[in-house]
Amino acid sequence: MGLDRVSIGVEEGEFVCLSGPSGSGKTTLLNAMGGLDTPDSGEVWVGGQRIDLLSKIALADMRLNNIGFVFQAYNLIPVLSASENIEFVMQVQGASKAERVARVSETLEEVGLAGMGDRLPSQLSGGQQQRVAIARAIASNPRLVLADEPTANLDSKTAEQLMTLFSELNARRTVTFVIATHDQRVMAHCKRLVAMEDGKIVNDTCQKNS
User: Fold this and answer.
1) pLDDT tens digits, residue range 174-202?
2) Per-residue pLDDT tens for 48-102?
3) What distance in Å separates the CA atoms of residue 13 and residue 48, rounded to the nearest whole number?
4) Listed residue (69, 71, 81, 78) closest to 153, CA to CA
5) Phi, psi of 114 (to 5 degrees)
6) Closest by alpha carbon to 180, among 156, 209, 201?
7) Is the pTM of this model over 0.85?
8) Cα(156)–Cα(185) distance, rounded to whole angstroms?
9) Do residues 70 and 148 lie in contact, with contact meaning Cβ atoms separated by under 8 Å?
10) Alpha helices, DSSP H only, in the chain?
């Protein structure tokens, strides 16, 4: 689903859910925010920088240093351990080995996987794989984390744990989260709920009970 004259601003440190049925445009909007899709018209700004005009190289560099992605399918590299998957982005960023090791250890502990860094993705449960994906997304200290249906393959208990983790990371690191979902369990944790339908924003509300 394409977007129809959508206008949205997200402040630093917000915790936002894009909700709506399949085909509502939420993933398209998420991809535009992350520079994965370029809009036919309009502007996309991230951290004071207009990203829809950037070259492919500049856009890739901006994403590398500013945005963490968490996908429904985890997208872990199967031949790399949990630690190596987390370390990969920092390696591309040019972080030193000592810094990478320290940050991998820190983020594994932060997502509740301390001592499991040597395991391959195939040796981890679905919930644990998603936690590795989250650790990979935050280890590079991004300003923004974009998550597309992050609980879709998880049972209720694991999904609840994952959203609690997101909330804690948002509060502790002041990382901005934008999550595309149609999962009510996810929406309950969001501080701002943006409902979409047919490529449009139909409602945008703050949730005081979150």
Assistant:
1) 889 999 998 888 888 899 999 999 999 99
2) 889 999 999 999 999 988 999 998 778 899 999 999 999 998 898 889 999 999 9
3) 15
4) 71
5) -55, 135
6) 201
7) yes
8) 8
9) yes
10) 26-33, 56-66, 82-93, 97-110, 126-139, 156-173, 184-187
